[in-house]
Amino acid sequence: MFRRKKKKSGEVAIQLTALVDALTILLVFFMMSKVAGSNIKIFDSSVFPTSEKQAQADGANEAPITYLEITDVNKIKVTVKSADKNVFESVTALDQLNLMLKNLKLKYPLMKSLKIESSPEVSYKDVIKVFDMAKAPESVQGNESTSPSTDKPTLFEDVTLEDIFKG
Amino acid sequence: MFRRKNKKSSEVDIQLTALVDVLTILLVFFMVQQSSSSENIKMKDLIKLPLAQNGYDTPIKENVNVIITDGFIKVGDNELLKLVEGKFNTSQMHEDDSEFISALHDKITNEEEWSEKKEFQWVLLADEKVPYETVKKTIYTLAISGFTKIKLASTTQQ
Questions:
Q1: What pTM was estimated for this model as a whole?
Q2: How close A140 gets to chain B, by Cα (Å)?
Q3: Could you give the count of Cα atoms lying within 13 Å of A56 in the half-sphere of its Cβ?
Q4: Range of weakest confidence among A73-87, B17-31, B61-75, B114-128
Q5: Do the beta carbons of residue A24 and residue A138 sit within 8 Å?
Q6: Staple A69 to which of A13, A77, B14, B27, CB 3.0 to 4.6 Å?
Q7: Chain A neighbours among B 49-68 (CB < 8 Å)?
Q8: With b meaning 16 or more CB within 10 Å and e meaning fewer, what string describes A5-27?
Q9: In this predicted structure, what is the pLDDT of residue A140?
Q10: Are B120 and B62 within 8 A, CB to CB?
């Protein structure tokens, strides 16, 4: 009787070990698939248009605002407005835009807003590229806006699709 | 001596049971998380999101996913409209407003499944090749229909 009981206990222990192994394998599988499936990131954009005066007020009183008109990847018109006047105008390509935005931010450190208008044929990919550049971490001191992904200051706090209601 | 050995074996049994319990709880936790992100995995087969590194994480709950591909628009799991080369056809648009997608508006405002989700985040998961015009018209229609918490999705790796 004692022997049989002892054997049974040993079997249970072996089965438990197998169960632990199986659970561990399943756990590792789900943890790995969780890591693989969590790479989607989102960008925020206000969808309602802002008047220039309101935009200036939003941009910390008279702070300059950058406007982008994307015709295609090789032709992006960049305008910086301050107090209803154009203080900077240039045309650049998408692959040069990042550097230009960084230089503009150095020149106008109070600037927080970027407003984008795109021609209909521009791909969603290129619009997202511009968002990505605008939300890149930057090292200007005293800027309160931060990148949600890195907690470092971002180049532009507010990025808006200005043409949604313009038709 | 015999007694001590027996006690040790019993301790091992108890620890294994506790370990099984802990592993089971962890497994259930990850399975629940997995089911909430299953939409992401299904979506990977449908579209190629644009690459970007500086977006922020999507909250797991209170999201409505709007998937835009070359061929259709899906809201949640339901395919609502067909597209041709990523564009709407004129029959889907409003007669007096070429930016307003009447067909989309009618479906999301008339069905309770969507109409009650105005406070949710509507995340646009558009294929990278879809023209901006399509995304713009979708945002415009959602905003006019009262769904104003609109987010644009990207991915950090493909």
A1: 0.73
A2: 17
A3: 11
A4: B17-31
A5: no
A6: A77
A7: 49-58, 68
A8: eeeeeeeebeebeebbeebeebb
A9: 47
A10: yes
